């Protein structure tokens, strides 16, 4: 038998990178609990995907007090989700820098990977110098090609905070998704799960906005 018949190929990956605001304000109104549960449910749904063209890998960067990698890129089927605590200010600039480094690391995101999906979830304005980091990230080769979504969490997100999220979101998409209450955080991640799963099975990523307006009555938050 030819040697080439013994060569195994690793699956192509579909990287999903979440930048999660875990500042102290996220401790109010069940925002951090809902965000933790939504990400955990998303990962569990990815593990149930069958006949996927791509292996979905998930990474999470948190920014609250300090910015750090909460979860490096890991295949969803191998990932044990650990809840994120909420504390401190909102160092988004540092988180954006970490995101750029992570995306350009070919040990984390191999060259054969599909276009990454980036999500920025926040409930307020950054407390550090973020503009230079945002410009650098969005100008980097992989982040520039990524599909980027942003979600504003809570009903008191001001326009300055929304402007930051709009800078991050992919131009031509539906802009910033507003999740005014906990129900809508769940709805956003349900939609994201469905859209990424569709792409992983060979379809196209859905750019249409998640149906946030009329489903809240169907979802129960403890």
Name some characteristics of this structure:
single chain; 222 residues; alpha/beta; 6 strands; globular
Quick structural overview:
The protein is α/β, with parallel strands linked by helices and about 220 residues long.
Explained architecture:
With 222 residues, this protein is an alpha/beta fold. The chain has 6 helices and 6 strands. Helix 1 (31-47) runs parallel beside helix 6 (182-200) and helix 2 runs parallel beside helix 3. The protein is globular and about 45 Å long. Residues 212-222 have low confidence and may be disordered.
Strand content: 15-25%
Q: Specify the biggest β-sheet.
A: 6 strands, mixed
Count of discrete alpha- or pi-helical segments spanning 4 or more residues: 6
Enumerate the strands of the largest sheet in spatial order, edge to edge or round the barrel: 3-2-1-4-5-6
Would you tell me the overall average pLDDT?
A: 87
Structural class: alpha/beta
Helix content: 25-40%
Give the CA-CA distance, first to last residue. 59 Å
Radius of gyration: 17 Å
Order of helices and strands: EHEEHEHHEHEH
């Amino acid at each position: 038998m030819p040697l080439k018949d013994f060569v195994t190929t690793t699956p192509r990956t579909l990287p999903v990178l979440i930048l999660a605001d875990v500042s102290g304000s996220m401790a109010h109104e069940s925002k951090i609990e809902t965000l933790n549960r939504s990400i955990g449910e998303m990962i569990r749904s990815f593990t149930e995907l069958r006949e996927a063209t791509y292996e979905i890998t998930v990474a999470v960067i948190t920014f609250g007090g300090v910015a750090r990698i909460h979860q490096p890129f890991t295949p969803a089927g191998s990932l044990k989700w650990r809840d994120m605590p909420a504390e401190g200010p909102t160092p988004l600039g540092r988180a954006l820098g970490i995101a750029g480094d992570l995306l350009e690391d070919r040990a984390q995101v191999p060259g054969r990977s599909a276009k990454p999906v980036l999500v920025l979830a926040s409930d307020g304005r950054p407390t550090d110098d973020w503009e230079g980091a945002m410009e650098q990230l969005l100008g980097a080769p992989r982040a520039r090609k990524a599909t980027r979504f942003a979600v504003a969490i809570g009903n008191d997100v001001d326009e300055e905070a929304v402007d930051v999220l709009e800078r991050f979101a992919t131009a031509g998409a539906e802009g910033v998704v507003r999740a005014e209450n906990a129900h809508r955080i769940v709805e956003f991640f349900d939609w994201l799960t469905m859209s990424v799963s569709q792409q992983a099975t060979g379809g196209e990523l859905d750019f249409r906005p998640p149906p946030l307006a009329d489903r809240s009555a169907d979802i129960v938050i403890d």
